[in-house]
Amino acid sequence: MYKTAIVCGAGGFIGGHLVNRLKSEGYWVRGVDIKENEYGHVNADDFVIGDLRDFQVCKSLFDREITEVYQLAADMGGAGYLFTGENDAAVMHNSALINLNMLEVSRLNNVSKIFYSSSACVYPEYNQMDPDNPKCAENTVYPAAPDSEYGWEKLFSERLYLTYHKNYDMEVRIGRFHNIFGPQGTWTGGKEKVPAAVCRKVSEAEDGGEIEIWGDGKQTRSFLFVDECVEAVRRLMMSTFLGPVNIGSEEMLPINDLVKVVADAAGKQIRIKHISGPIGVMGRNSDNSLIREKLGWAPSRPLKEGIAKTYEWIAAQVLASKDVEMDTV
Questions:
Q1: Which CATH number fits domain 4-181+224-247: 3.30.300.30, 3.40.50.720, 3.40.640.10, 3.40.980.20?
Q2: For the chain, what is the radius of gyration of the CA atoms?
Q3: Strands 220-221 and 253-254
Q4: Which of 66, 104, 228, 257 could cross-link 299 (Cys pair, CB 3.0–4.6 Å)?
Q5: Catalytic residue from among 150, 161, 164, 311
Q6: Which long-range contacts (CB under 8 A, 24 or more apart) does 21-29 make?
Q7: DSSP 8-state assignment for residue 129
């Protein structure tokens, strides 16, 4: 069967990697985003620059039969963007509108399957106060109490996709991403996630130097390398399981220890200066019991391996940006 796919958010980090994976499997792929992919993921057969908040733009994507849709587009970023409260209205409005539009046009065009990228941010804040024992099993999401409006929108959209499955018999798949990182991701500008930000800071610091970390650094997280994230998405789409299911790593560590992992990859000694700033919940870790049960799979790549690859890429970007600055002086 000839396979065709639309990847919404193909100008972004995970979307770009997903386009490459689908192309390697023989798909015809149309990428769509409000911006081009800035790190060279241009392998889609067709790339549409378009605003998915516009229903007419969404309709225009279906000028041929599309068998699968991957909906990764969202208004999002790191803690500096999501947890200050300054962007809450935009985050909720933009992301909800994108999901309403893409889900409806997918229904109207009889798409075989649609994947929705939800987030670990849907989990209740009250279950993530202990940095050593966060509770993030899929069935702990209710009573709902996400720590951000971003999380509330993600939870609403999960319900939206499930109602389309219930009322229209649509084949939906929902994955909850937990801190995905790797090369070709945002690494500066305020929307970068923690691993990229730490890699950038360490690469800019001298050996024996100091970097700033928000909070006391004792807040815990787990981080999943992007290749494994894409693998999980594809396995979920090929399965009969709807989800929601966690897509993340169980290798949890404090942010202070993450700095040490990055510093080791850089071959540097790094001191930490703790400063005030948004930190989100105190603990978060993927519970992979359900994905093991339903898909017979869980990620296995150690964090330090992915960090080494990511650091190498970000350090090269930092060096290149300095060269550009020198050329413009």
A1: 3.40.50.720
A2: 19
A3: antiparallel
A4: 228
A5: 150
A6: 21/230, 21/234, 25/234, 27/3, 27/68, 28/2, 28/3, 28/4, 29/4, 29/5
A7: S
- Please confirm, yes or no, whether 150 is among the known catalytic residues: yes
197-211 pLDDT, tens digit per residue, is 999 999 999 999 999
**Residues 118, 242 contacting (CB under 8 angstroms):** no
CATH (one of 3.30.2130.30, 3.90.25.10, 1.10.486.10, 3.40.50.150) for 194-221+251-284+302-323: 3.90.25.10
Query: With a cut of 70, which residues of the chain have pLDDT below it?
Result: 1, 40-41, 76-84, 323-329
Q: What is the pLDDT of residue 82?
A: 62
pLDDT digits (tens, 9 = 90+) for 79-116: 666 666 777 899 899 999 999 999 999 999 999 999 99
pTM over 0.85: yes
Instruction: Name residue, tokens 């005030």.
Output: 276
DSSP 237-291: HHSS----EEES----EEHHHHHHHHHHHHT---EEEEE------SB-----HHH
**Whether the Cβ atoms of residue 27 and residue 47 lie closer than 8 Å to each other:** no
DSSP string, 54-101: SHHHHHHT-SS---EEEE---S--SHHHHSSSTTHHHHHHHHHHHHHH
